[in-house]
Amino acid sequence: MRRMGGFKTRVSRPGRYRRPLLIALGALVCSPAVADLLTAQFAYRKGDYERALHDYRELAELGQPMAQLNLAIMYSRGQGTRQSDVNAYAWATLAAENGEARGRMLADELRPLLAPGSEKIANDIAAPFRREELDARLMPKIEDTSREACGKFTAPRMGYPPGVGWNVQGNVFAEFVVLPDGRARHARILYGVPVGVFEGTVREAVLHLQFAVRAPDSAPAHCSVMFRFAALGQDASDYPGLRAFVSKTRVKAEAGDVPSEEMYGMLLEGFPQLGRGARDALPWFLKAAQAGAPTAQYEVGSSLLHGIGCRCEATKGEVWLRKAAEADQPDAQVTLAQYALRGSPDTAATEQAKLWLERAVKSGNHDGMLYLSALLAATPVNSLRDPARALHLLEGVKGDLRGDPAEFEIRAAAEASAGDFAQAVKSEREAIDRAAKLHWDLSSLRERLASYQNQKPWFGSLLAL
Fold first, then answer.
1. 272 and 216, same structural domain?
2. CA distance 52 to 69
3. Which of 57, 93, 140, 306 has its CA at 20 to 30 Å from residue 201's CA atom?
4. Residue 145 confidence (pLDDT)
5. Same structural domain for residues 282 and 155?
6. pLDDT of residue 149
7. What's the pLDDT at 156?
């Protein structure tokens, strides 16, 4: 349940920004990975055949045709493994079935070399990785989910952050949840250009987005918005050269360039001017995800988890999210933690969530710090609760929580856990004052305030999941 929208803020002074902004976006898709085509090829060229074989196989099992072809070649040459025409033939046929013409050529060369009965063995090797099997285990079923989108919203007029030059342009892609009261919570920044400039402004702006009010028992809606910052004098409806950049990116994506596949997906999903959306973007994210791009794997996993542009299939979503998280993609780590904490989690699930959040915190991720702080402040699991550390983590992110009631919600819960109920009452009242200004539903905040006034700590989930 996610709506993409373009939101533009303009400064009150004309200016020109000559640097090619959109081209700079390309740098954002380069993320560390456990296995991807680039690192596999690099290992192969170095002669590290064992690593290359491992990486190619991991991607080949996801249905990536180039990895399947390269794996077949390595089996045929005995590089990094024992030479095997049977395995080479199996992976070559899979590459061919997935559109790699050279896979068919290699399979045709290998077939006469197979001993009687070997072709059946090769088919058995390939069977778990044929398209129908991958469809059942991994692949999203693309669907139009626009009817489930968050809907239209109203937004505040924003100024530029203090100290940022008037001629600086940029954009920030943010995800968040919208509760039944129609108000947005907990913006997660997936990328921003320039890095570190507009993220705090966007987090604050998300709090002021107003969506339609829904039934009180409605599930939180997962939404995304592209915030764009441009100086007066620029095209009011589009970036100069946007369509040319989109066209160039598509050409590279269609040629199999993995960063361009991921970027093209972002463009289709993030710019409403293009008239496309999540359903159109997801196949491109999937291509990049199969090639080992962690952010694309996160996008595929998140889409499956929430039914964004595809049928909601949580089991498949967890597979992709775990792959991204194991490659230290922090958004995937936070999402897996959120998923573990849904409902009434037991101790094992809470411990697992903490482990994922600790990994996100280790990389300095804002949302990892925020969610771990909330967990340590109010988890019902006594052995995991750590109010002092919760407050310490909160100090690291409070500068980005301008106007956000979550800061004082977490602070109050930690103070109550530590037995300082007088201070917890003060903090919770500050949270309520902030929430009232944002027109939030105050019932849950007042419930916590009553608990602290009665000298009782409050345990549960402080952040909307």
1. yes
2. 13
3. 306
4. 66
5. yes
6. 53
7. 62
At 114-163, the pLDDT tens digits run 999 999 999 999 999 999 999 999 999 998 765 445 666 666 666 677 77
Check residue 3 and give its pLDDT.
40
Which residue stretches of the chain have pLDDT < 50?
A: 1-33, 147-148, 235-236
CATH number at residue 405: 1.25.40.10
Cα separation, 47 vs 44, in Å, equals 5
Residue 275: the pLDDT is 79
114 and 229 housed in the same domain: no
* pTM given for the model: 0.82
Q: Is residue 36, in this structure, part of any structural domain at all?
A: no
**Domain check: are 204 and 298 in the same one?**
yes
The reply to whether 78 and 210 lie within a common domain is no
Print the SS3 string covering the chain: CCCCCEEEEEEEEECCCCCCHHHHHHHHHCCCCCCCHHHHHHHHHHCCHHHHHHHHHHHHCCCCHHHHHHHHHHHHHCCCCCCCHHHHHHHHHHHHHCCCHHHHHHHHHHHHHCCCCHHHHHHHHHHHHCHHHHHHHCCCCECCCHHHCCCCEECCCCCCCCCCCCCCCEEEEEEEEECCCCEEEEEEEEEEECCCCCHHHHHHHHCCCEECCCCCCCCCEEEEEEEEEEEECCCCCCCCCHHHHHHHHHHHHHCCCHHHHHHHHHHHHHCHHHCCCHHHHHHHHHHHHHCCCHHHHHHHHHHHHHCCCECCCHHHHHHHHHHHHHCCCHHHHHHHHHHHCCCCCCHHHHHHHHHHHHHHHHCCCHHHHHHHHHHHHHCCCCCCCCHHHHHHHHHHHHHHCCCCHHHHHHHHHHHHHCCCHHHHHHHHHHHHHHHHHCCCCCHHHHHHHHHHHCCCCCCCCCCCC
φ, ψ of residue 369 to 5 degrees: the values are -65, -40
431 lies in the same domain as 353: yes
Question: Nearest CA to 421 among 457, 374, 465?
Answer: 457
Place of tokens 């400064």: 11
Residues 21 and 155 placed together within one structural domain of the fold: yes
What's the CA gap between 93 and 89, in Å, rounded? 6
pLDDT of residue 183: 87
Which residue range is the domain that position 86 belongs to?
63-137
